Amino acid sequence: MKDSFDVVIVGGAVIGSAVAYFLTANPDFDGSVLVVERDPTYAKASTSLSSSSIRTQFSNPINVRISQFGSAFIRDFATTMQVAGEPGPDLNFHQGGYLFLANTAAQERTLRENHAVQKACGADVVLWGPDELARAFPHLDVADIRLASYGQSGEGWFSNTGLMNGFKAKARELGADYITDEVVGITRSGDRVTGITLKSGAKIAAGTIVNASGPRAALTARMAGLDVPVEPRKRTLFVFDCAHTPEGSATVNNGRLPLMIDPTGVFCRPEGRYFLSGCAPADDPAVDWDDFEPRWEEFENCIWPALAGRSPAFEAIKVVNQWAGHYDFNTLDHNLIVGPHPEVRNFIFANGFSGHGLQQGPATGRGVAELILYGGFRALDLSEVGYERIVEGRPFLEKAVI
């Protein structure tokens, strides 16, 4: 392996591999790329443990447009990621849509305000009253619902590891180097980072370093004498079987049910013959980077009561699988941080996605590649989610965070 690279990416899951792909696929880039990944199995990566969904139903235009690009990219993924003439992974994109439910005046107002932003961006989202909601999804109890917001296209779920592995395979074909090792040190000279030290003892010079290390982003930043407000937050997902499944009962979208977000915050979507569900815990502390013990009690205490109250079909359900993963949680505003440090311009952050990393991976990879190549964003201006707001303590407003 060489001892010097133009770009070193710390972390090889979906964000790091997206950056590697968009760099090496750009005809204006003729440099070298090294991706350092500590765990080539990705068994505990946020990518692998994600619910792997994408939506355009956000409140900020930037997040809407990020997902619009991501949705189009996912649809064409197998063609774009051809390797040696063979198609890339089929991401099995189920365009089931998202369904947000509101049962308070404040929630209704938020859905209406969000919808205005989404429509201005061209998102295919409609608002329904309780009667329209009941006609579309007859299994739901809508007695308390004031308003629903439904994504008719461009939203759904897909293969998380397929997205990551497709990016990785294509980036390697285009010349990116991947190594299994761990970055344990970053050298810095004044206002520039100059290289990394690996756990194996190797030292590698770097022209630019990209922090794509997920929940460990703060550890990576500290090696360069920098800070980023990202910490691991645990999220438990439950797969359950349903005695009388409502899948197929919808009068829209060929009978397929959407990813529903109940007013309680509990979400639920089809997962093959089963359903996948989860919720944000009431007590949500930072956890150890190696703590992946599921919070078993969340199903009985939070998820099942909410779902059983929303649909008679969910009264008789049984958990068949569960696991816990980590959000790379941005404690300032729960949104992505993409861009260089203002004082160390060749250290670039791609962190803090707070559960949105998979859907925002394509746009992030493209944006970081543009920063490295051109010194600024071109396709979509992501400067509002740059690191400067962290320094200033100025949150990026996004009301539709799950």
From TrEMBL:
<keyword id="KW-0560">Oxidoreductase</keyword>
<protein>
    <submittedName>
        <fullName>FAD-binding oxidoreductase</fullName>
    </submittedName>
</protein>
<dbReference type="Pfam" id="PF01266">
    <property type="entry name" value="DAO"/>
</dbReference>
<feature type="transmembrane region" description="Helical">
    <location>
        <begin position="7"/>
        <end position="24"/>
    </location>
</feature>
<dbReference type="GO" id="GO:0005737">
    <property type="term" value="C:cytoplasm"/>
</dbReference>
<feature type="domain" description="FAD dependent oxidoreductase">
    <location>
        <begin position="6"/>
        <end position="371"/>
    </location>
</feature>
<dbReference type="InterPro" id="IPR006076">
    <property type="entry name" value="FAD-dep_OxRdtase"/>
</dbReference>
<dbReference type="GO" id="GO:0032981">
    <property type="term" value="P:mitochondrial respiratory chain complex I assembly"/>
</dbReference>
<dbReference type="InterPro" id="IPR036188">
    <property type="entry name" value="FAD/NAD-bd_sf"/>
</dbReference>
<keyword id="KW-1133">Transmembrane helix</keyword>
<dbReference type="GO" id="GO:0016491">
    <property type="term" value="F:oxidoreductase activity"/>
</dbReference>
<keyword id="KW-0472">Membrane</keyword>
<keyword id="KW-0812">Transmembrane</keyword>
